[in-house]
Structure formats: C-alpha cells, structure tokens
C-alpha cells in the first residue's frame, strides 16, 4: 500500500496493479488483479458497493450539472468572437479597438464580482446562488441580440461578466468538497473540458445560424446566435436549482439520503478536507499569513495571461485576413477546442494516476511554450504554423489542474479554500482586463508579434512558479511531519523532549 500524503494529496491508499499475494495470521491473501480501466478511472478495491453507488450519483448529478453550467457560461462568453467575425463588426460599425473594449468590460465585471460571490457562497446555498446567477446571464444573452450600438454591447458584457464571475471558483469549490484527491483531477478536467465543447459548439452553431437564419425575421445571423444561446441555456439554469447538492454538511438534494450525507462527510474527513465554519474576521489572518494565497495567485495570474483575451482568437483573425469564407472561419478553429478537450481530460486522468499535479502541469506548459515560440518566429513552414495554432490549446489544462492543486493545498481550511480559489481567479482576470490590450491588441492581427514573444516569456515564468509552489508544498508537508513527530514524543511519559 502507498501513503502519498507527502505529495499533498491527503492520505490516499492505492492497491498494487499487478497480481500479488500476502501472508498474515489467517493464511495467504490473494489480491485480485486490477482491471484495465483502473489506469484510466479511479479504482479502489477497498471501496464498498455503497460508496461506488454514491460516487456514481455525484458524477451523474453534480458533475453533470456543473459541466453543463460551464458549457453555457463559455457558450455565452465565446459567442462574441463568433458574432464579431460573422457580421456584428460591420452591422454595428465596430473597429478593432472596440472589440478589445468589449472584452475589457466583460473582464472588469468578472473581476468585480469574484470575491463578493465567494463570500456570499459561504452564506447562501450554492443550489440557490449559482442557478440564480446563471438565469441572469441567460437573460442578458438574449439582450445582446437586440443591441444596436457597440456601447450597448459593452454595457451588457460588463453585466454578463459580473454574474458569470461566480461560476468557475464556486464550481471548483463544490467539486473539491465532495471528491477525494484520487478522484478530483479527472472530475475537474471533465468539468473544464465542457468549455472546449462550448467553443466547438458555438462555432458550429454560428456557421449553421449564419447559413440558415441570416435575415430571418429581419435579424442578422449573429443576432440569432445570441437567441439560440439563450434558448439552450435556460433549461440548464432551472435544472441547477434541483441538481446542485450544496455541501456535505448541509445538503438537501433529493437524490442524497442521510446515509449518503454521512458517508460524504466521512470521506472528506478521511482526507483532511475540513467543512465550513462560521465566517469571521479571523479568516483574513489565516489566508494572508500563509504562503498559499500569494504563491497560488501569482501562478494563476501567469496562467490566465499567457495568451490573448477570450475575444481574440489569433487563428480566426489569421483566417479572416487571408479571406477565408465566414462559415470556415467559424468551423476551422473548433479543431483547437477539440485539442483542448482531449488534452484536458487526458492530462487530468494522467495527473490522478501519477498523483503528481506539477509534473503534468509542466507538460502542458511545455506544449504552450513550443507553440508560442513557433508563432513568435512566424516565418516557419505553413504546416508547422497550422500545428502551432492548434496545439496552443494544449496549454489550457494547466488551469483546472492548478485549481485541483489549490483545493488540495488548502484542504484543511474550507473558508481559506473558498477565498483562495476566488482570489486566484479574480487576480488573474484583474490583469487580464488590461494586459491583453498591450500584448494582443486587435490592431496587430494577424501576426501579433509582440503578443507571441510575450507568451513565450510567460510560459517560461509559468515553469518557474510551478516549481516554486511544488517546493513550498513539500517544505510545508515536511514541517507538518516534524511537528507531528514532536507532538508524539511530547505525549510519551518521561520523554526528554519539551514542547
């Protein structure tokens, strides 16, 4: 058996994957060989049938509704980029700088709403707060279809960012409140992969809408995109009120009985994941006197800002500059999202299997560094340029893995965990509100020379901060072990060690 507590995963018990036999006082015990799928999905031979069914309930309900929620969030977030290259720019007489301003407006709202939302999350049930905000941003998405000026779009996008700000850190907080470390990475990866599915779907949807509905009822194709996004989002918002189970200590979900709730609390207690306590001013001292918030926030600031903002897709603008048809401009970049989807799930599975978040995060960083370096050089073979554009999304899995890592590093303090996740995301997007204006201004399209050079340097910095956080985590775990040994010695009568 392996105890991986030193890796920051809590106490995780893993059975050997090969056939083995052991002897004890009762005679030899033959261990069943682990199934082939244990290399892909979490497998624990000591897990009871009741616990297996409970985890399946969580996957079908919590993981599904959060993934669908992130799907519609990203659908409503990325539709601006699709609408811009599909006629909105011409119809609203927008210039390239206004696209940047629309993105700044969304990001500003996203940053402003982040921390208040995380505080509210410690007071209000997630099953009420999250779907309510989803419903508001769905209504605002319908409003975008009626916008007639770029200023209206900017104002609406600010409000969209404000209500969307609650979702990502809240979802990671919920996932980290129900799943063990050996289960966490895969679920966080699957959750995050829904954003790639949304980007793909938005491209296909815009292409279909532009072809089939452009001009219908006097509405342009880009306006119909917002209408269709709203129609898709509404039922998912309503389902959230019933399927989000809140937290193990206060769940009232219809599909979780009292035995399930007791099991959930025990599972979290076994891995040192603390439940919520009454929120007080002491939380500020606990958060800001630990290294967690400072190092993890720097890590996430770098990750969020290694590339352009969400409204700027260098591949789409490169295709537009080379006179590709609108339909293909919307469809071809969905290949990037496919790469993101596969690598996000694949890297998440690998990180759970290896039980080593920083190693897999570094692989993701390397792929991002390679792509940005190639595009910074620019004068490269056309095939390599296409490859670089598509492989760029392999750098995205770093994000959900870092959130899973933060969930584990801060696992002993639920309030710290909630605030640190919120601060990480808010700080990252606080820089993202203005930094892409300097690094990836739309006026530099399609080459973005200084942007790709900046990304190359940022990925190097990402390597460094990943190593720093890894070292700090190991240092903290060593200190905890030393204190534990000292406490045990101090508790022995006649011990020479004084504490």
Topology (SSEs and partners):
Elements: E1 2-3, E2 13-14, E3 20-24, E4 27-31, H1 49-91, H2 96-121, H3 126-144, H4 150-164, H5 167-178, H6 181-212, H7 221-243, H8 258-270, H9 282-288, H10 291-304, H11 314-321, H12 326-331, H13 334-354, H14 357-377, H15 382-391, H16 398-409, H17 414-432, H18 435-439, H19 449-490
Antiparallel strand pairs: 1-2, 3-4
List keywords for this structure.
single chain; 499 residues; mainly alpha; Growth Hormone, Chain: A; two-stranded antiparallel ribbon; 19 helices; 70% helix; globular; disordered N terminus; disordered C terminus
Inertia-based shape: globular
Show unreliable segments.
Answer: 1-27, 495-499
Total number of helical segments? 19
According to CATH, what is the topology of the largest domain?
Growth Hormone, Chain: A
Total number of distinct structural domains: 2
Going across the biggest sheet, name each strand in turn.
1-2
Distance between the termini: 33 Å
The radius of gyration computed from the alpha-carbon positions, rounded to a whole number of angstroms, is 24 Å
The ordered H/E elements are: EEEEHHHHHHHHHHHHHHHHHHH
Give the structural class: mainly alpha
Q: Which architecture of the largest domain would the CATH scheme give at its second level?
A: Up-down Bundle
Number of strands: 4
Say which CATH homologous superfamily of the largest domain is assigned: MFS general substrate transporter like domains
The average pLDDT score comes to: 83
Largest sheet: 2 strands, antiparallel
Helix percentage: 55-70%
Strand percent estimate: under 5%
CATH class of the largest domain, named Mainly Alpha
Pfam families: MFS_1
GO molecular function: transmembrane transporter activity
Main location: membrane
Protein name: Pantothenate transporter liz1
